[in-house]
Design brief:
Low-confidence stretches of chain A: none
Radius of gyration of chain B: 14 Å
Largest sheet of chain B: 6 strands, mixed
Strand content of chain A: over 45%
Mean pLDDT of chain A: 93
Helix content of chain B: under 10%
Mean pLDDT of chain B: 93
Shape of chain A: globular
Number of helices of chain A: 0
Oligomer: heterodimer
Helix content of chain A: under 10%
Strand content of chain B: over 45%
Number of helices of chain B: 0
Radius of gyration of chain A: 13 Å
Low-confidence stretches of chain B: none
Largest interface: A-B, 25 and 22 residues
Structural class of chain A: mainly beta
Largest sheet of chain A: 7 strands, mixed
Chain lengths: 113, 115
């Protein structure tokens, strides 16, 4: 158990809908990262927050957004969902310094029908 | 830009034999390198990392990796494989000159250890 929690574990929804994925980092970690894992794209970095501020952006679609709250938990919002958005979404956290290890949550499996 | 390659989609090894999972990287400066393992329906688990210092890094579950700067490689090794080592292995790289902590992952290598 990494100490990173993600809810829900599974999510089934329809095209065009909007969903919110939630992540709680390990105690003491200030950075939160979101990744998407799919069979064809592999593990893709989406976005990073550090202590409430956006720190880095990767291959995140404009239909997706995220935020980190004062208690350091983070939410990833996915809107206007398409079939191709079906994937595993992972959250990871780290202390926030140089060379630090990222610890991953168990993931949310999203299925868009 | 940073990148990492795992040239093998799958590695097969018999239990008790040594295993190697290959990884090569590309960064502009000195890299930070990581190995993670993913078991079915689970998140990624950290195995080991190289930041600086000794080129041979020891990690969890008896795994080790050797940093080779001239060959830009960071291969994962274990002297004696276990069936329970069967999983998906990811190599990741970070360019410390980027200023941020983003990791770039390889596509993963499936390790299958047969009894």
């Amino acid at each position: 158990d990494s100490g990173v929690t993600q809810t829900p574990k599974h999510l089934i929804t329809a095209t065009g809908q909007r969903v919110t994925l939630r992540c709680s980092p390990r105690s003491g970690d200030l950075s939160v990262y979101w990744y998407q894992q799919s069979l064809d794209q592999g593990l893709q970095f989406l976005i990073q927050y550090y202590n409430g501020e956006e720190r880095a952006k990767g291959n995140i679609l404009e239909r997706f957004s995220a935020q980190q709250f004062p208690d350091l938990h983070s939410e990833l919002n996915l809107s206007s969902l398409e079939l191709g958005d079906s994937a595993l979404y992972f959250c990871a956290s780290s202390v926030g310094g140089q060379g630090e290890t990222q610890y991953f949550g168990p993931g949310t499996r999203l299925l868009v029908l | 830009a940073q990148s990492v390659a795992q040239p093998e989609d799958q590695v097969n090894v018999a239990e008790g034999n040594p295993l190697t999972v290959k990884c090569t990287y590309s960064v502009s400066g000195n890299p930070y390198l990581f190995w993670y393992v993913q078991y079915p329906n689970r998140g990624l688990q950290f195995l080991l990392k190289y930041i600086t210092g000794d080129n041979l890094v020891k990690g969890s579950y008896g795994f080790e990796a050797e940093f080779n700067k001239s060959q830009t490689s960071f291969h994962l090794k274990k002297p004696s494989a276990l069936v329970s080592d069967s999983a998906l292995y990811f190599c990741a790289v970070r360019d410390p000159n980027s200023g941020y902590s983003t990791l770039t992952f390889g596509k993963g290598t499936m390790l299958l250890v047969s009894p």
